[in-house]
């Protein structure tokens, strides 16, 4: 029996707990397929799981929500024509029937189901999508989780229209950089915030109209000066004081989409701003099958993901260290 | 020259600063009309202004946003057929062109413009609406500000549908009791919270399906038990810790409308709840001309406002004391 190589998380801890080893090959249940992965990509979720800061951790588990490769085996009730096709995997499983919100059976690939830091992964066949031909496997692996999250935040939730001004906080991370790409593609004018001038410069190269350093406590004012107005929409994954500033910054009647809270809860939330400005504060996480398919069409139409680094699977620990240092701009990819 | 009687706020302070006196009659500018008021009603806004807790206070001013009476004089460019008609006054002036949010010129009757604690009030003619014939002047005066705020919160913002479960926090206050009436009228099943068992009982008599005391720190659990599920919508004017509990209480994918923050800012806002539950947090204040007209149709179709107390204009101080004690259920009205 062939043994695949995979990075199995057996104990929580620092990046060095991530070591490649040989484990039994997965085989498809009915309705499933097995993909020979060519590339995976990291998400902050992987770091939170590895360090024990995630709900429902069950070990051992193979991390990884993002993957691209070729289908090598199909289970019962799956069209065998999938075999040999180059695919990208939708990491949202069992969303449920309500487009507004995931149901209680919702799962994300890479916990509890084994994920993509592996040579093979077993997934429901309806998670398979043809890889856009112009994308390499590394580029394709950079797309799924971050792009579907950004797409849902911008399109399904904020309904960003061409010509609107959009601020994306904390550029550099996966969802934020995808929001920059997708927002620009939709015809919005996108501004960013970052702690790093180099990242603001990189954002400009990828289509941002401007940006400010969040080390300036008056950054909302600086941004309003750049835009010449308040923005219509703020897309925020930071939370904490940034969320309060987003409520202050955004135009009356505007939308603030929250997709995360890396800075934690908000202290002293000024509710007065929410009601007096008639704001829409819209929570968003991951995306539906429909969100994923619509997002993928943007890439099929020529959108190019931003890859920060490509490392071999054996260097998953090194890849996690890079993510924890927060120096990346775009996705950190593992070549398999 | 006839001198009307009015309660003029000349200095900030306790309720006793509210004394009726004689002041010159108002006369209409072009586009305006003068209404001989038969009744006015109180809002918390009046108390906040009297005690100096409101932006843009300019003294002296006649307080009062709610009024009903008869048109006695019309200015240039106003159809003189208004004269003699029994009217109810829309207290939102100069909303602006954007249905989503009031513009910078927006004003509320009763500051800076003189309001309805008076025998006569001068208002823009487009603020006039025919009084629903089955309502007395006291009942009609109980409608405007609270009902338009509740209507916009429930209908324009939350888009409450028949059959949905709606929780209204802090029943007893003007907007909350109007939200109970309007929500029930829309076919929603309305639950309430209050610090007073008597108010919960009163809410039941006015159509509430149930209610819980917010003195129970586990009140969201108690409410879920009553409803048999989480509610689709929470309408909150309290803010503070109640807002956090509303985010916890509401159904995933649900809506929380905030129209006020009597408890002040929120500490430790759990943003995670907003994004993971894909919530819509919708700010709302006052309402547009369209909101007002649509709200008024509900009353014209037979909805009956809740009047707590009727006192003569000379007892405005006593009326304010009653509002500050917070014992009222429904509107406190001044007969003029």
List the topology elements.
Two copies of one chain form a homodimer.
Chain A: E1 3-9, E2 20-24, E3 32-41, H1 44-50, E4 61-62, E5 66-74, E6 86-89, E7 92-93, E8 107-108, E9 120-124, E10 128-130, H2 137-141, H3 144-157, E11 165-168, H4 174-185, E12 189-194, H5 197-205, E13 210-213, H6 219-227, E14 233-236, H7 240-249, E15 255-258, H8 271-276, E16 280-283, H9 289-300, E17 307-312, H10 316-325, E18 331-335
Parallel strand pairs in A: 11-12, 11-14, 12-13, 14-15, 15-16, 17-18
Antiparallel strand pairs in A: 1-2, 1-4, 3-5, 3-9, 3-18, 5-6, 6-10, 7-8
Helix pairs in contact in A: 3-4, 3-9, 6-7
Give the second-level CATH assignment, the architecture of the largest domain in chain A. Answer: Alpha-Beta Complex
| N/C terminus separation of chain A | 20 Å
Radius of gyration of chain A, rounded? Answer: 20 Å
H and E order of chain A: EEEHEEEEEEEHHEHEHEHEHEHEHEHE
Uncertain runs of chain A are none
> How would a textbook summarize the main sheet of chain A?
7 strands, mixed
- Total count of domains of chain A: 2
Strand content of chain A: 25-35%
By CATH reckoning, the class of the largest domain in chain A would read Alpha Beta
CATH-defined superfamily of the largest domain in chain A: Medium-chain alcohol dehydrogenases, catalytic domain
| Helical stretch tally of chain A | 10
What form of chain A results from the Cα inertia axes? Answer: globular
- Largest contact between protein chains? A-B, 34 and 34 residues
The CATH topology label of the largest domain in chain A is: Quinone Oxidoreductase, Chain A, domain 1
Please give the oligomerization state of what you see.
homodimer
- Taking all residues together, what is the mean pLDDT of chain A? 97
Structural class given helices, strands, pairing of chain A?
A: alpha/beta
Q: What is the helix fraction of residues of chain A, given as a range?
A: 25-40%
């Amino acid at each position: 029996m062939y043994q695949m190589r995979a990075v199995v998380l057996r104990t929580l801890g620092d990046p060095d707990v991530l070591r490649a080893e040989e484990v039994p090959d997965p085989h498809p249940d009915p309705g499933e397929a097995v993909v020979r992965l060519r590339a995976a990509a990291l998400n902050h979720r992987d770091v939170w799981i590895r360090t024990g800061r995630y709900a429902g951790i069950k070990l051992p588990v193979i991390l990884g929500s993002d993957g691209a490769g070729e289908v090598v085996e199909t289970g019962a009730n799956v069209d065998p024509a999938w075999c040999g096709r180059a695919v990208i995997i939708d990491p949202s499983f069992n969303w449920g029937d309500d487009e507004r919100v995931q149901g209680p059976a919702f799962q994300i690939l890479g916990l509890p189901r084994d994920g993509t830091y592996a040579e093979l992964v077993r997934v429901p066949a309806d998670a398979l999508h043809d890889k856009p031909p112009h994308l390499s496997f590394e580029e394709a692996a950079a797309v799924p989780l971050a792009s579907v999250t950004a797409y849902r935040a911008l399109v399904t939730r904020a309904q960003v229209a061409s010509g609107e001004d959009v601020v994306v906080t904390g550029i550099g991370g996966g969802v934020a950089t995808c929001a920059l790409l997708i927002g620009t593609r939709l015809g919005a004018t996108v501004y960013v915030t970052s702690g790093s001038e180099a990242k603001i410069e990189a954002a400009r190269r990828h289509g941002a109209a401007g940006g400010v350093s969040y080390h300036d406590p008056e950054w909302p004012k600086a941004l309003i000066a750049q835009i010449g107005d308040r923005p219509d929409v703020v897309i925020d994954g930071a939370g904490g004081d940034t969320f309060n500033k987003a409520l202050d910054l955004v135009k009356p009647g505007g939308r603030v989409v929250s997709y995360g809270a890396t800075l934690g809860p908000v202290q002293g939330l000024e509710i007065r701003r929410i009601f007096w400005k008639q704001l829409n504060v819209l929570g968003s996480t991951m995306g539906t099958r429909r969100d994923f398919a619509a997002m993928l069409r943007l890439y099929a139409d020529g959108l190019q993901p931003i890859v920060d680094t490509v490392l071999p699977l054996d260097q998953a620990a090194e890849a996690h260290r890079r993510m924890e240092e927060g120096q990346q701009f775009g996705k950190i990819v593992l070549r398999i």
